[in-house]
Design brief:
By secondary structure, the chain is of the alpha/beta class. It contains 11 helices and 16 strands. The chain has helices at 11-22, 42-45, 56-59, 85-106, 140-144, 175-194, 220-229, 249-265, 284-295, 320-326, 334-341; strands at residues 2-6, 26-30, 48-49, 68-71, 110-116, 124-127, 131-133, 160-162, 197-203, 205-207, 235-236, 243-244, 246-248, 271-276, 282-283, 302-303. A 7-stranded parallel beta sheet has the order 3-2-1-4-5-9-14, with helices on both faces. Strand 4, helix 4 and strand 5 form a beta-alpha-beta unit. The longest helix has 22 residues, at 85-106.
Length: 347
């Protein structure tokens, strides 16, 4: 297949490009190379057309002869301040809309798009006595007092987390999350209006080789690693008990390939969403410990009690739909992958 890949010089996009080309597919690489994501250097730019997805005229000639588009480019991260909102809306919302219009103009009707676990907001919770709950954003006063759990609205007890499937309500709680919900909605509208077919992949915490270090695009695992390399113990926010799912970038690349092949075979008007996760949740303090161990360091993570407003307590995905429909099961277990990550080459 001939794939136009946006965000091709990024962490996840680069892994997808390499994986597809190794499988014998032709990849037309597109990346704006914004400095927030990666430095503009020869290695990052190699083989990529430096094109802004918000520029439909520049995209048009690259879409000729394309079978399917894999849209990975985006501004990521929670957003540091409200002032960041225009950047998310411009790169993610407008960029997706322009790309979809250009695809329609070029007669390209198949798409795989990167989404994120952040569309769910808080995960799914249950009170042993009062059943399923949808907690409101956590109160600053409780966080200041060191109470990080979500509580039952009736009895006040701490809620237990459950896995989140793709039918869970969407509840974005950051600028980035709002832009990813908007991306999915634009794609859903395009599928209906243009009779296209699309898959949205809701990535959980992606890590692995060539991950950016010490930038707004760095994941928490990379931040833990940088701390250890600088001789500092990893700083774990809240009480370290936050549950997350960490999925290796090689698994993410393989899931994209499976999705690209699937979307070519389904009828027009089809839109499906999938969690992309390992299926093996871990606490954040455990992540810090595994990364530190992988470096060979004896530094012990420090649970600082600090917090960020807008962070969610627990978000753990169900991998069942991706396994059933795509045949995708993660191959890299977090227990091994996070320790290996400690010595992976970063950018």
């Amino acid at each position: 297949m001939r794939v136009l890949l946006t965000g091709s010089a990024g962490f996840i996009g680069g892994a997808i490009a390499d994986h597809l080309e190794a499988a014998g597919d032709e990849v037309v690489r597109v990346d704006l190379l914004i400095p927030e994501a990666h430095p503009v250097d020869a290695a990052a730019a190699a083989g990529s057309h430096r094109v802004d997805v918000r520029d439909g005229a520049a995209l048009a000639p690259l879409l000729h002869g394309i079978d399917v588009v894999c849209h990975q480019s985006a501004m990521v991260g929670a957003g540091v301040t409200v002032a960041d909102m225009p950047s998310y809306a411009s790169h993610n919302d407008l960029g997706t809309a322009v790309l979809l219009a250009a695809m329609h103009q070029a007669g390209v009707g198949r798409l795989v798009v990167a989404s994120s676990m952040v569309v769910y907001g808080e995960g799914r919770y249950d009170c042993p006595n009062h059943g399923r709950q949808t907690p409101a954003p956590r109160d600053r006063r409780a966080l200041d007092a060191g109470d990080f759990e979500n509580h039952c609205s009736r009895c006040g007890g701490a809620l237990d987390w459950e896995t989140v499937d793709e039918d869970a309500p969407l509840d974005p709680r950051s600028s980035y999350a709002a832009s990813k919900v908007a991306t999915e909605h634009y794609v859903s509208a395009w599928v209906r209006q243009a009779a296209g077919s699309a898959v949205a992949l809701r990535y959980h915490n992606v890590y692995g080789p060539r991950m950016p270090r010490d930038t707004p695009y760095s994941g928490v695992a990379a931040l833990f690693r940088s701390a250890v390399e600088q001789g500092r113990p990893p700083d774990v926010f809240e009480d370290g008990g936050q549950m997350r799912d960490f999925v290796h970038v090689s698994d993410v690349a393989r899931c994209n390939e499976l999705s690209l092949r699937r979307v070519l075979d389904v009828p027009g008007g089809t839109f499906a969403t999938y969690n992309v996760c390992s299926g093996e949740p871990v606490t954040i303090v455990r992540v810090a410990g595994l990364v530190a161990r992988g470096t060979g360091s004896e530094l012990t993570p420090v649970v600082s009690g600090r917090y960020r407003l807008g962070d969610v307590r627990h978000i753990v995905a169900s991998p069942e739909r991706a396994t059933r429909d795509l045949g995708f099961t993660a191959e890299v277990r977090p227990e091994q992958g996070l320790q290996q990550f400690a010595t992976d080459p970063l950018r």
